[in-house]
Amino acid sequence: MSSKTSRPKADSYRCTECGWTTIKWVGRCGECQAWGTVTEVGAVAVRTTAAGVAEFDRVLGGGIVPGAVVLVAGEPGIGKSTLLLDVAARSARAGDGHAVLYVSGEESAAQVKARAERIEAMARTLFLASETDLATVLGQIETVRPELVVVDSVQTIASGSVEGAAGNVSQVREVAAAIIAAAKSQGIAVLLVGHVTKDGSIAGPRVLEHLVDVVVAFEGERHSRLRLVRAVKNRFGPTDEVGCFDLSDVGITGLDDPSGLFLSQRAQQVPGTCVTVALEGRRPLLTEVQALVAPSAVQTPRRATSGLDPARVGMVIAVLTRRAGAPLAGQDAYLSTVGGVRVTEPAADLAVALSMASAILDRPLPPGTFAFGEVGLAGEVRPVTGPHRRLAEAARLGFTTAYVPIGVLGGGPIPEGLTVEEVPDVETAVRDAVWAGARD
């Protein structure tokens, strides 16, 4: 594993929107005038060790800190083991002879080896162990003296000194505390796998999240290849970075430019589609929203969504009906995102509204058009965070016309070749964007 020291940072405050710095905290950025974006910048330099997986290192703030314990949480079968086996192998290859220990409590060593061969995650100094006893795991760590330990998972390891089966509250607390103590005393980086419950919370006691140094969430839909890793807690770095991965039969691959995955490739514009720019952490991702409206065969029209927040979609439909006169009574509405990505932030509201209007009028938006903005119940289009990051990403991918909330034009430079149309409300947006498509 290659080491690096993150750049020492001065005692100051920095705007997460535009990078403007000041020596004292203020509620509003003095450069871009954004509210609530000025945060403290620490002065402590943290020595990190790159794991060799760029997207994973990005989420961790540059790499893994020796002696740190990272909890990787996600649903069973989503790909956590595949990712961490790849991280373990790359760390072993880059470690100049340093050992890496992968402990599996769910699979035999032969099964882990077979998976490692399939995804090409073999390394000379990568040691595999299948153990469920805490004392044996600690003994393996003492014997191998690894630089990195992966424990898959903390809910499968049990301590003989604690009553109850593996995975109960007492066992998880004892196992985590013992492994953390070993990591701190020996300066070993540890990646702990933790499963989550149906409601998305980490299985086991809440104290587990407080014991570890970093908590990252591994997210994704089972039917989609896209996987997102985001930091929920990080004592050594930011929590606003997101790593994107493509999970396939041959392993997991980092995506340093994933925006194109969520856009349809077609020769001409189609009614019922609108591109928006979502922010995953600090990373802007272009996403296509698709809508289909059809006469309903039942008394209560159907509203179906995929990849979007059903509550926000229902609200946008109500606003379109009441404020823009959309004839949605007696119409079924189906909305979806492209590529399996999930977009829940309010900034997608305007794209949802325009895709619905385009479907109702059967008129496509002009080529190169995208939109973002939160829609209020009065029909107004409200500002959202990071507008200029969104504009820059869309311009980079060749988009030419943006429909945005009022105030964006005065907040910073506009990318060359991009026309920005500020719209005060949904009715204006529909008139300017959808009927503009009709004129073109």
From TrEMBL:
Q: Where is this region: Lon-protease-like?
A: 332-440
UniProt keyword annotation of Methyltransferase present: yes
Domain of life according to the entry = Bacteria
Location of the motif RadA KNRFG motif: 233-237
* One Gene Ontology biological process: recombinational repair
Q: Give the matching PROSITE patterns.
A: RECA_2
Binding positions for ATP?
G74, E75, P76, G77, I78, G79, K80, S81
**Can you cite an annotated GO cellular component?**
cytosol
Domain RecA family profile residues, every copy: 45-196
Name one matching Pfam family.
Answer: Zn_ribbon_LapB
Keywords on this record? ATP-binding, DNA damage, DNA repair, DNA-binding, Hydrolase, Metal-binding, Methyltransferase, Nucleotide-binding, Stress response, Transferase, Zinc, Zinc-finger
Gene Ontology molecular function, alphabetical = ATP binding; ATP-dependent DNA damage sensor activity; damaged DNA binding; hydrolase activity; methyltransferase activity; zinc ion binding
Alphabetical list of HAMAP family matching this protein: RadA_bact (MF_01498)
Record function comment: DNA-dependent ATPase involved in processing of recombination intermediates, plays a role in repairing DNA breaks. Stimulates the branch migration of RecA-mediated strand transfer reactions, allowing the 3' invading strand to extend heteroduplex DNA faster. Binds ssDNA in the presence of ADP but not other nucleotides, has ATPase activity that is stimulated by ssDNA and various branched DNA structures, but inhibited by SSB. Does not have RecA's homology-searching function.
Q: What is known of its domains?
A: The middle region has homology to RecA with ATPase motifs including the RadA KNRFG motif, while the C-terminus is homologous to Lon protease.
Record-stated family: Belongs to the RecA family. RadA subfamily.
> What is the protein's given name?
DNA repair protein RadA
Species annotation:
Nostocoides japonicum T1-X7
